């Protein structure tokens, strides 16, 4: 079963939604929301079965592949930009 972690815009920034539950905090940038989501998943459930997605301007949820950078977390990439 696929489980999702969505990064979506919010009135005051960005939030993440994991399995339908929205983060308690709002983040100023997309990158901060992604980092918080990854940290939450690592602490509580393991990321191996999660699919990260972001909301496009038209409302569609697009998959995001997370590519690790040396010493600096990860870069979210849309499959459309590769």
Describe the protein in words.
The protein is α+β, with helices and mostly antiparallel strands. The protein is built from one helix and seven strands. The protein has one helix at 30-44, and strands spanning 3-10, 13-18, 21-22, 50-55, 61-63, 65-68, 74-77. A five-stranded mixed beta sheet has the order 3-2-1-4-5, covered by helices on one side. A two-stranded antiparallel sheet has the order 6-7. The radius of gyration is 12 Å and the shape is globular. The termini are far apart.
List the helices and strands and how they pair.
Blueprint: E1 3-10, E2 13-18, E3 21-22, H1 30-44, E4 50-55, E5 61-63, E6 65-68, E7 74-77
Parallel strand pairs: 1-4
Antiparallel strand pairs: 1-2, 2-3, 4-5, 6-7
Strand percent estimate: 35-45%
What overall geometry do the principal axes of the alpha carbons give? globular
Q: Biggest sheet, open or closed, and with what strands and sense?
A: 5 strands, mixed
Query: Given the helix and strand composition, which structural class is it?
Result: alpha+beta
Number of E-state strands: 7
- Give the N-terminus to C-terminus distance in angstroms: 26 Å
| Count of runs of 4 or more consecutive helical residues | 1
Helix and strand pattern:
EEEHEEEE
Looking at how many chains there are and whether they match, the oligomeric state comes to: single chain
Indicate the low-confidence ranges by residue numbers.
67-82
The average pLDDT score comes to: 76
Main sheet: strand order: 3-2-1-4-5
The helical percent reads 10-25%
